[in-house]
Known about the structure:
MDM20, NAA25_NatB_aux_su
Amino acid sequence: xxxxxxxxxxxxxxxxxxxxxxxxxxxxxxxxxxxxxxxxxxxxxxxxxxxxxxxxxxxxxxxxxxxxxxxxxxxxxxxxxxxxxxxxxxxxxxxxxxxxxxxxxxxxxxxxxxxxxxxxxxxxxxxxxxxxxxxxxxxxxxxxxxxxxxxxxxxxxxxxxxxxxxxxxxxxxxxxxxxxxxxxxxxxxxxxxxxxxxxxxxxxxxxxxxxxxxxxxxxxxxxxxxxxxxxxxxxxxxxxxxxxxxxxxxxxxxxxxxxxxxxxxxxxxxxxxxxxxxxxxxxxxxxxxxxxxxxxxxxxxxxxxxxxxxxxxxxxxxxxxxxxxxxxxxxxxxxxxxxxxxxxxxxxxxxxxxxxxxxxxxxxxxxxxxxxxxxxxxxxxxxxxxxxxxxxxxxxxxxxxxxxxxxxxxxxxxxxxxxxxxxxxxxxxxxxxxxxxxxxxxxxxxxxxxxxxxxxxxxxxxxxxxxxxxxxxxxxxxxxxxxxxxxxxxxxxxxxxxxxxxxxxxxxxxxxxxxxxxxxxxxxxxxxxxxxxxxxxxxxxxxxxxxxxxxxxxxxxxxxxxxxxxxxxxxxxxxxxxxxxxxxxxxxxxxxxxxxxxxxxxxxxxxxxxxxxxxxxxxxxxxxxxxxxxxxxxxxxxxxxxxxxxxxxxxxxxxxxxxxxxxxxxxxxxxxxxxxxxxxxxxxxxxxxxxxxxxxxxxxxxxxxxxxxxxxxxxxxxxxxxxxxxxxxxxxxxxxxxxxxxxxxxxxxxxxxxxxxxxxxxxxxxxxxxxxxxxxxxxxxxxxxxxxxxxxxxxxxxxxxxxxxxxxxxxxxxxxxxxxxxxxxxxxxxxxxxxxx
Length: 837
């Protein structure tokens, strides 16, 4: 049992206070000489303070003693786990379980609990095999073990998909560069590939067989007790595409099917072409059980036709439906589908739907899926003209016009906005979105899609002013806020995004999907660092929450949700968003010289180096929400494809920066050389096409690291030094920093942050390893700093904005206040970088 004083020692070790921790441990060992747990902690101190081999050897000896103290087993397992000695980590539990079978169930459950955060389903399978053996009377362990086989198969399928992408050239250069040169050429790639693929398929076949057999054997004494147990069995039937058995099994089940199994049953009958059974089942669901689901209606129509029901018979049966009103959205759409199914003209059904739902925002998305006739467009135009001529208008007229403009615009969207904005605002509550702003946003994005190099920034600023005006009466409009952030991100208005991001109340998992709006362009300030740390805390919290959710999922047998819980956790483990936050935090710390968190994040980077630098990064960023309801023209669809006004993101540069930090704060020269080789391989890759300034930054890092942390001869050192001095001349840097035409671009502040960070890192390494070369380079960087402070980077931007003319604005608005805000933001954001020189 770990005592409070034991926890104190563990915390001291975690904080790096090794001397004090060691003195307390010696007292403990003197008092409890037989307790191996304290020896493990001592070895952890040895490892952390540089005596890695001795610490590992000591713990291997302790492992052989096979202590059944829970604390000892757990701490030994954690030690070997932390240094990627997985075989030894497993032996910590396996040896004790085999030696003390009476403790097998308890130890296996602890092993599982302590390994959940790894989210390694193959590891789950190993643990569950012991757990299942430990207590055969507990049926849930059998289901856990069986389900883990399914999870392994599913994960293997995902990895194969990634492998296929990698073969097409999408594998990261870091991942390619991780293997040593000696691994090449031993055996023909084709021969190895064929053998490996054969073994893989053989394993998958065994997994399917074992998982299915476990459940079938259990069924002889324990029939399915609920839908979740049946769900596990159907996973293996699905893997074998055995839809006939699925249909038979689900059809005979004596309990009501839950939604997941009900949908599977419907799909199986469709695949098996069991039209009569499907027609009868869907009829019961729709007409007796009130299951008003659109996809089920479609199955009912198709199966009805297959069993010989006529269009008239199906239409008559539909008319007798009492589960919904005769004018429900689904029912009217089903009537359109019915006409389509029998190749009848759908104009009448479409008109009926339109008349009922033209004043609902779902109207356009529902009807745009069908072929709409010229007569329909004429009808829409006629309705629009009638509304435009009305003297009294309400929100229903507004929504009808919004739909009609998407179907067939007859006037400019802004004309409608001006005429109807008062009626729209008057009728909505504070939190309702103004429907007219859908049309406004369509016009804004269309305008942005037509910019030329000469009009780009004036158009951006004009539309920022328009969005700010629209948000005055619609401040909770999600997409308006997203587009406003997108536009601010195109300029050097870095500090404008923070307040919008916070106003959207983005929290928890939204940081994973939308965090890039903030992290990509955030300025180096104390407030930014606090925000980034808070975002990072979400990932720390999520680990514990996911662990608890998965543990509860197994305990309660919620198998239909478990796979998504595990997949979600795996996506968060090594995501682009997480790694971008870590990179941005370290960059901000370095620029600000705020070392409070530096030790923690460099340690985090080192502990997670393998996955961060060589693993696959999952991309969970939401790049589509801002386009919702806007794609009503080919021009707008093209704009989305071209990613206009995209938040600036560069995942390769993020990985390169993390490599730079890893090298700068690494003391092992062989590891630095290994990482430098990978770094250079990415820089040299034809797939990496940075702009001139970014290329200069990373080449400078390469030369500095090679010059200062590796053993090279004097000639090579002099050559690297000469190259650095040449590239660090201010005149050259100034010409690359940004052209006068693009000085308003966000790239200016991005380049400045990267340059200041480079200067800070050079100073840092000079303190640690001073040399004549570095002293001269530091003198050169001082000249860069002095020149940058004198440079008119800010005033040049403000002068360009002052020369802009904003005429023919679609709304009556005063642009002066917004322009003033933009100029103030440019001034403060750029200054916040230059002030750290």
